[in-house]
Write a structure and sequence with these properties.
The complex is a heterodimer of chains A (197) and B (771).
Chain A: E1 23-26, H1 32-44, H2 53-63, E2 68-71, E3 78-89, E4 96-106, H3 115-129, E5 134-140, H4 144-153, E6 156-161, E7 171-177, H5 183-194
Parallel strand pairs in A: 4-5
Antiparallel strand pairs in A: 1-2, 2-3, 3-4, 5-7, 6-7
Chain B: H1 7-12, H2 53-61, H3 76-81, H4 113-131, H5 144-150, H6 174-199, H7 223-239, H8 246-269, H9 275-294, H10 328-345, H11 354-365, H12 373-384, H13 395-406, H14 427-453, H15 457-489, H16 509-531, H17 540-569, H18 576-611, H19 625-637, H20 647-655, H21 661-683, H22 701-737, E1 746-749, E2 765-768
Antiparallel strand pairs in B: 1-2
Helix pairs in contact in B: 4-6, 4-8, 4-10, 6-7, 6-8, 6-12, 7-8, 8-9, 9-10, 11-22, 14-15, 15-16, 16-17, 17-18, 17-20, 18-21, 18-22, 21-22
The chains are: A alpha+beta (197), B mainly alpha (771).
Domain N-acetyltransferase (chain A): 22-179
Protein name (chain A): Acyl-CoA N-acyltransferase
InterPro entries (chain A): Acyl_CoA_acyltransferase, GNAT_dom, NAA30-like
């Protein structure tokens, strides 16, 4: 989705020094009033097409546990956010449990200091713990820093999507396989699961 | 939330509905009211309506703000489609305080000739933006003149004017007449363009937006009526020439001429006759376009004649988006290319043989930038319209031509006389039947290759991956038919490779043909991966190794085809078909071996550079290399032949742990030299040898592009040799220093595909200096 373009400039030279250790927290519904407006503001800043409130709620209400916030250590203001989902993907066989990094944004002043990488790692770890088979995302072809970030972590480009964004730019689909996508293995695991401990 | 009201509620609400009757519900009366809208009137047998407003409100009150209630069918797609009323970026009806719904540009105001040129030139830039993939709403439909011309829909050519209801006697202002005629021509040609694209295969909103937002692009008005209006406007320019400068009169005339020529070009293309006569209006456009470009300075821009607000009047839920503004230079380059490609694409009609046809499509579509969607749609139309290839050949003719070139020259299997045999026990009767089964099985897959290459490059790669699975089964099915046919022809099996002592086998011509295409598809997908920058620098050693593996497999397969063909025909005197097939197999083998050598050289070079830590390798804390191999090779995993190597054997083949670095460099140098020998032969080939024949006239753009490609490969090949030598020298220098402490005095840059010699050959640039 277009919001992955938000990783834009994450590696550009920092404009502000990090104010000590950032706080990283997992999102939960009780934080909505405090942080959702800031999340929307941070993400929509770099977007030509705004997402309605339903897009955020679509993700946060079902997968709040896959959303992480980076907060300022003293005033707890929002510095960065990653938003994901994790569900069965059955459009081709065999079905896989597919994680999807939908949005990633870091406040311009704090880019280039590993905040985005830290957020993405937390999201991958959380999805991996929940048995994700793979994690995918799209990123704009011109967004070299974002691609570098994901590729450093282990993602590969699997395909290019022509004129994927409304601005006419193309995208790459990036994929990180966490478990072998093998029908037989999947079947064996299912059998194991069925066996009582 | 007046979800449902029952009849009684509606009736009891009666007095508030003053002025309405059930048969004529008029919502306008409520538009300005701040009250809640009235409940819908539901009266139908079988519906028991019940007012749920209060129940809904009390249920909703138990939810916290932001809590989402949704069923399992509410998808991300739907949530993205949701709108927030009152947000100007989402709500198409949302106006800023004091903002008016429309602009008040007066289309009846008199126009200076320079203003007409200014408006037309802006329309040209918007037209090409539409061709590039932006919607009409952000391009041509931002013109106030066009909006007034199209709305309400004109039913006659007289109605088609931005000034409606002119008094019958009144003279049209000459400048209004010129602009109107221009817009008529523009809209009619856009109508044909849109229809052509809709009829062929392309990806909506990815390649092109065919949406006309409920506006008719003058569908009802005939092309000749419009042509006459343009003629009339040109006469008007002639009549008033004393009132404007010659330069201005010409500039206006050229712009009208462009419209007439484009309409004519489109009209002729439907004939699919010969390239030469079809190219006349395109050539005319080419000349006129240069004249238009030189008179751009006469134009006086009229920005107020274009508005984003018109989008609110279109059948669309999107709020107004900005006008797509291409600069004059960009407009010029794209228009020039559109016209040049329009002429070039006609050459496809000069058919000589199936392989030259494929070659034309491959090289035409490999151009950078790729031809525009409309041109690609024209190409598809020429190729496939009504299932008559190029307007005169049956699918069987093309397919049989191809079979005779690749595997079956002068073969009984392709003899048309087989069809005339009526005795069911006769072998020819059975052959005709089985060949027809084969054609039915393979024709679509074969044509799909041509169709795939008419798409955008990203889609070509993805479509070929799908085709690959299809060709896997084509090959299997073809082999079954081969086995039936060899009984009919009483073919004797042969030992192949000769004197290898293996069990004799049959020629299996049909499955051999399918296997050859399958291998080409596999090579193309890997090569497109380089072109589209799918692979990271440290994947290049592996992907070039895989390409070399595929091309070597194909070269070996071609040897097998040659062997069986030669054996079958050794007793007969060579026919022209045999000579042609021999020439093709020679060319294909040379291409395959050259690809193999060059890919081998590059793979070895990248492996050496990786050993020297000159190719960055990301840390990749997640996943494993084996899993990444699975992602990368997923489309090939289900292919039975050639089988995908295991991750372990792939890794060993690429890293070559048992080969020293100097030996590896030596093998890279040898492979590059071998590729160069092949390329020297290839680049000197004539159009016949290269199977890039442009038809009767000879020469042809397909051949030019083929030669250009061969030369680009040659330059890439030379660059590989140079890079290998540079690394060798640096290693020797390093060894001489003995120290080995300072590290290598070398740095490596992996260029982007468009900055190299050829998009399929990513040659690293090795230079001196510490990295």
């Amino acid at each position: 989705m277009a919001a992955s373009e938000l990783a834009k400039d994450i590696e550009s030279p920092p404009k502000a020094k990090l104010p000590g250790e950032l706080k990283y927290i997992q999102y939960q519904h009780s934080l909505e009033a405090q942080y959702l407006p800031a999340i929307r503001a941070l993400i929509s800043k770099d977007l030509s097409e705004p997402y309605s409130i339903y897009v955020y709620r679509y993700f946060l209400c079902q997968w709040g546990h896959l959303c992480y916030l980076a907060l300022h250590p003293t005033d707890s203001s929002l510095i960065g956010v990653v938003i994901c989902k994790l569900e069965m993907h059955a459009s081709h066989s065999p079905p896989t449990l597919r994680g999807y990094i939908a949005m990633l944004a870091v406040s311009a002043a704090y880019r280039g200091q590993g905040v985005a990488t830290a957020l993405v790692k937390m999201a991958i770890d959380a999805m991996s713990e929940r048995n994700a088979d793979e994690i995918v995302l799209e990123t704009e072809e011109t967004n070299i820093p974002a691609m570098r970030l994901y590729e450093r972590l282990g993602f590969l480009r699997s395909k290019k999507l022509h004129r994927y964004y409304l601005n006419g730019n193309s995208a790459y689909r990036l994929v990180l396989l966490l478990r072998p996508a093998d029908t037989d293995i999947a079947a064996n695991l299912a059998l194991d699961d069925a066996t009582p401990p | 939330m007046n979800a449902v009201h029952d009849d009684t509620t509606a009736v009891s609400d009666g007095p508030e509905l003053g002025g309405f009757s059930i048969n004529s519900y008029d919502p306008r009366a409520y538009l300005d009211a701040f009250e809640e809208p009235p409940p819908p009137m539901i009266s139908s047998e079988g519906i028991v309506a019940h007012n749920i407003t209060e129940e809904f409100r009390s249920a909703a009150a138990t939810l916290e703000p932001g809590e989402l209630v949704k069923d399992g069918y509410f998808t991300l797609f739907e949530s993205v489609g949701a709108l927030e009323i009152g947000d100007p970026k989402m709500d198409s009806g949302c106006l800023a305080p004091g903002e008016s719904l429309d602009d008040d540009y007066d289309v009846t105001r008199p126009l200076l000739p320079g203003e007409v040129i200014g408006i037309i030139d802006q329309l040209l830039s918007l037209e090409i933006a539409w061709h590039l993939g932006y919607p009409l709403s952000q391009t041509l439909f931002t013109s106030v003149y066009i909006e007034h011309m199209l709305q309400p829909t004109p039913m006659t050519v007289q109605d088609a004017d931005f000034i409606r209801n002119r008094p019958p006697q009144s003279q049209r202002d000459p400048m209004h007449g010129v602009l109107r005629a221009y817009c008529l021509g523009l809209l009619k040609s856009s109508c044909y363009v849109n229809e052509r694209i809709k009829q062929e295969h392309s990806y909506e909103e990815e390649d092109f937006v065919t949406n006309t937002y409920n506006r008719s692009l003058l569908e009802k008005i005939g092309r000749y009526e419009i042509r006459d209006e343009i003629m009339e406007a040109r006469n008007i320019i002639h009549e008033i020439r004393h009132t404007i400068t010659d330069e201005m009169a010409h500039a206006l005339g050229f712009r009208l001429e462009l419209r007439t020529a484009f309409l004519r070009a489109i009209e002729l293309s439907e004939l699919r006759s010969d390239a030469e006569s079809l190219s006349l209006p395109w050539s005319q456009m080419q000349g006129v376009w240069e004249a238009i470009n030189k008179t751009r300075h006469l134009g006086k821009p009229v920005p107020e004649a274009f508005s984003t607000k018109i989008q609110r009047r279109l059948a669309s839920t999107m709020p107004p988006r900005p006008i797509v503004q291409l600069g004059p230079e960009e407009t010029h380059e794209h228009f020039k290319k559109l016209i040049a490609d329009g002429i070039d694409v006609l050459n496809v009609l000069n058919y000589s043989d199936s392989q030259s046809l494929l070659n034309f499509v491959l090289t035409f579509q490999a151009q950078k930038p790729q031809p525009l969607v409309f041109i690609r749609a024209l190409l598809q139309n020429f190729l496939f319209h009504d299932m008559v290839i190029l307007g005169r050949l049956s699918i069987r003719q093309i397919l049989d031509d191809d079979l005779s070139i690749v595997v079956l020259p002068s073969s009984l299997l392709l003899d048309p006389a087989n069809d005339n045999v009526e005795a069911p026990h006769h072998p020819r009767y059975a052959i005709a039947h089985q060949m027809e089964l084969f054609r039915q099985r393979a024709a679509q897959s074969y044509l799909d290759i041509f169709r795939a290459f008419c798409q955008n490059r990203c889609r070509v790669r993805r479509t070929l991956f799908h085709s690959l699975q299809d060709w896997e089964t084509v090959q299997i099915d073809a082999e079954e038919i081969d086995q039936l046919l060899q009984l009919q022809t009483e073919e004797k099996p042969l030992v192949y490779p000769p004197s290898s002592g293996v069990v004799p086998s049959h020629s299996l011509p049909l499955s051999s043909w399918a296997y050859h295409y399958k291998l080409r598809l596999m090579e193309w997908t890997v090569q497109l991966g380089f072109e589209l920058e799918i692979y990271q620098p440290d994947e290049l050693a592996g992907m070039y190794w895989y390409l070399s593996y595929l091309s070597r497999t194909r070269a070996q397969h071609l040897e097998r085809i040659k062997f069986f063909s030669a054996h079958r025909l050794e007793t007969t005197t060579a026919t022209s078909q045999q000579t042609r097939s021999k020439a093709y197999l020679h060319l294909a083998t040379l291409e395959a071996t050259t690809t193999h050598h060059l890919a081998t050289a590059l793979s070895a070079l990248y492996t050496v550079l990786a050993r020297l830590d000159l190719i960055p390798r990301p840390p990749r804390p997640y996943g494993t290399d084996a899993l990444r191999y699975q992602v990368r090779m997923k489309p090939f995993a289900s292919i039975g032949l050639p089988e995908l190597p295991s991750f372990e054997s792939f890794t060993t083949a690429v890293l070559k742990p048992n080969v020293s670095t100097p030996a590896l460099l030596e093998s890279a140098a040898k492979a590059a030299a071998a590729a160069r020998v092949g390329l020297e032969v290839l680049s000197k080939m004539g159009e016949g040898e290269a199977f890039a024949t442009g038809g009767r006239g000879g020469g042809g753009t397909g051949f030019e592009r083929w030669v250009g490609g061969a030369r680009a490969w040659m330059r890439a090949c030379i660059a590989v040799g140079v890079a290998v030598e540079s690394v060798k020298r640096a290693l020797v220098a390093n060894a001489d220093e003995k120290a080995g402490m300072g590290g290598l005095t070398m740095s490596v840059e992996v260029p982007r595909p468009e900055n190299g010699y050829h998009e399929w050959w990513i040659v690293p640039r090795v230079s001196k200096g510490r990295f």
